[in-house]
Design a protein that fits this description.
The chain is of the alpha+beta class. The chain has helices at 8-13, 20-33, 56-63, 67-74, 83-92, 97-107, 125-133, 153-159, 172-178, 180-185, 189-206, 211-223, 225-231, 281-294, and strands spanning 139-142, 148-151, 241-248, 252-263, 266-275. It has a five-stranded antiparallel beta sheet, with helices on both faces.
Length: 307
């Protein structure tokens, strides 16, 4: 993995909350830049546009607000902005539901009571017991900052023995960007990396004052060029289900469906499960993996060291 000297914004972020105003400003700029006049039914007069995408004047016209008002918002001043105006801007920018929610979190952050920033996230005992009863189904619970909080034996057999890692390393972002074996495990590593960064962006919108999150972003920005590139896109999205293709060192190729369930008792935590289509080669491989994982002569494979 290429190493570079820390960039100024990474150093500034580490250990402190993210700058919500800067996040709001760059998010709006990036969403405006991806739209062309013809995408939104506007005439494009002239081929030499000084800015990529829509001009502020064009976006303000589409949203039905003054240019001065929109300019203040794009400069990070979301104070006193109404939900109706945010809705209009979201429609003008063609935001997805996840992007719309992210914009709202940045512009109108909820007031939170001060909580100990370093407090470890806790998983209820009943949920840990539920994981253990899910025989043959890889399942784990993830929390804020892409942290892996609890898992069952099948998840360890599929993704690696997270118990052998220090708690700080049980984190999807660190595993995907800094551990070589996860590049080999995920067939479409780039898409997995994008999903992780989009999820962290959502976290940043909901919890911009989280120093552990900004420390993680700062660390990855210093250590991973790929992370810096993806973080700079300001993309956000939420994936509640889909398909992941893996190349497992023991059972070979797997195509697994995943489902993500946000826990109602703690919306910062999600239960993620993986299963194969019945009767498919992947289902056979998953059963073989389950047998291998329960064989005392074949302990769960160790998690590899970072690159």
């Amino acid at each position: 993995m290429e190493r570079r000297d820390p960039e100024p914004e990474a150093v500034a972020a580490a250990g402190h909350g993210l700058d919500r105003r800067a996040e709001l400003s760059e998010f709006l700029r990036s969403r405006r830049a991806r739209l062309k006049p013809q995408d939104v039914g506007l005439a494009d007069f002239g081929r030499h546009r000084r800015v990529p995408g829509l001009r502020r004047e064009e976006l303000a016209q589409l949203a039905g607000v003054s240019v001065a008002y929109y300019t203040r918002l794009e400069q990070g001043n979301g104070r006193n902005v109404s939900a109706e105006v945010l809705d209009s801007i979201a429609r003008a920018l063609r935001l997805s539901d996840a992007e719309h929610a992210h914009l709202t979190h940045l512009a109108k952050p909820k007031s939170h009571k001060k909580k100990p920033a370093a407090r470890q996230q806790q998983v209820r005992l009943a949920l840990r017991q539920l994981l253990d009863t899910m025989d043959g189904v890889p399942a784990y619970i993830a929390g804020r900052r892409s942290e892996i909080l609890a898992w069952n034996r099948m998840a360890a057999a599929l993704f690696g023995d997270w118990a052998q890692l220090p708690p700080a390393e049980r984190n999807w972002a660190r595993l995907v960007f800094l551990h070589r074996d996860y590049r080999e495990l995920f067939v479409d590593w780039e898409q997995k990396a994008i999903d992780i960064v989009c999820s962290l962006r959502m976290d940043a919108g909901c919890h911009p004052d989280d120093p552990r999150l900004s420390a993680l972003v700062g660390e990855l920005s210093v250590k991973s060029e790929e992370f810096r590139r993806l973080w700079a896109t300001y993309d956000v999205k939420e994936k509640s289900h889909g398909v992941k293709c893996l190349h497992h060192p023991v059972v070979g190729d797997l195509s697994l469906n995943f489902e993500s369930f946000r826990l109602t008792g703690d919306t910062d935590q999600s239960l993620i499960t993986y299963h194969a289509e019945p009767g498919s080669p992947s289902a056979d491989s998953l059963r073989l993996l389950a047998s291998w994982a329960t064989d005392a002569s074949h302990p769960v494979r160790p998690a590899q060291s970072p690159t």
